Amino acid sequence: MKKTMNTCGWQAAAAGTAAIILTIHGALAAESSGAWSAAERDGRVEAKRGDKLMLAWQVAPLAHPAGGAKFAEAGAFLHPLCTPSGFVCTTVQPPDHLHHLGLWWPWKFVEVDGKRFNTWEIQEGQGAHVARAAKPLSGGPDKGEWEFSNETTIKPADGPLTTVIHETAKVTVGVQGKDANVIDVSISQKAADKPVTIVNYTYSGFSWRGPASWNKDNSKMTTSEGLGRDEANGKPARWVMVSGPTPAGSATLLMMSAATDIAGTPERLRVWDGKMSNGTPFVNFNPVMGKALTLDAEHPAVSNRKYRILAVDHTLNADEAEGEWKKWLGK
Predict the structure, then answer these.
(1) 261 φ, ψ to 5°?
(2) For residue 258, which phi and psi values (nearest 5 degrees)?
(3) Taking the CA of residue 286 as centre, how many other CA atoms within 13 Å lie in the half-sphere pointing to its CB?
(4) Would you place residue 161 in the very low, low, confident or very high pLDDT band (cuts 50, 70, 90)?
């Protein structure tokens, strides 16, 4: 049964962890044709425009995750992320990578007290990126805005489950023109009780797993540097987009990073080429591909990140994508 977000709360117990308390206050907007509304259902916050689901944030772990108990902490992700026509641009727990969760942003490895913990592959049992609370900040007929409180936890072999990173993620969803949804994501992280280092690795951070129906034969990837899926891996980029077919025509998912403004350097990409899972879209903006960074205010590349995503019901070209990036950052 669906509940409109007035004042409600619930508990969701994750296997092997303490109960998670999730509380939502306030109402985004009354449901009406073309207006944005939000509701809590089945452990997630759902954003609708009219009667169409456009975006959802998973605040409770998945009730019945593929792969069983090893994935009991699968949560803290955006899915589905849709175009205005309703085409779903994200995939959760695909068979080849059960830890891939739509649009999500765990670190591959964090280092605490000289020990390294994998918080990306939750099935390893070393750590996880988990949701703790959600609340709407504002809302209306044109957009919705939420603040999500999340944590990165680790499980030392000789100690209890421990929170090592506190995170505040602000997510805004709105529309642009007649056929584009715009999602802004701002992520602020700080170490909890002990210093944390984000370990360098080939993939880590803000990531997207695209539609299972898209592959190397029917979709096209382009980056801000003019590179395709077979050339872009490991290269810097300000934006990356993938376009492919939908039942109604075509769609584009454009991901943009503000790292050049915030950290003075673009993030590097981990993307799959045509040989990996037949070119199914996987895109990762990675600030620690080149070197490890301490999680503190002096390293905004990891502690203060901002992204914009456009889910569009047509095919964008590179000039349009560059224009969107410049418009977003006021260039």
Answers:
(1) -80, -40
(2) -100, 15
(3) 26
(4) very high
pLDDT, tens digit (0-9, with 9 covering 90-100), for 7-53: 222 223 333 333 333 333 333 333 334 788 888 888 999 999 888 99
| Strand segments (E) across 199-238 | 206-209, 220-223, 236-237
Q: Report how many helices (DSSP H) and strands (DSSP E) the chain contains, helices first.
A: 3, 24
**How many separate domains does the chain show?**
1
Whether 191 is in a domain gets the answer yes
Tens digits of residue pLDDT in 239-260: 999 999 999 999 999 999 999 9
> In whole angstroms, what separates CA 66 from the centre of its chain?
19
Q: Could you tell me if residue 133 is inside a domain?
A: yes
Cα separation of 104 and 208, whole Å? Answer: 7
In a domain, 304, yes or no: yes
Q: Both tokens of residue 322?
A: 């560059």
Within a domain: residue 57? no
- Closest C-alpha to 259, from 202, 289, 304: 304
Q: What is the extent of the structural domain holding 179?
A: 78-329
CATH number at residue 109: 2.70.98
Omega before residue 287 within 30° of 0, cis:
no
Phi, psi of 71 (to 5 degrees): -110, 25
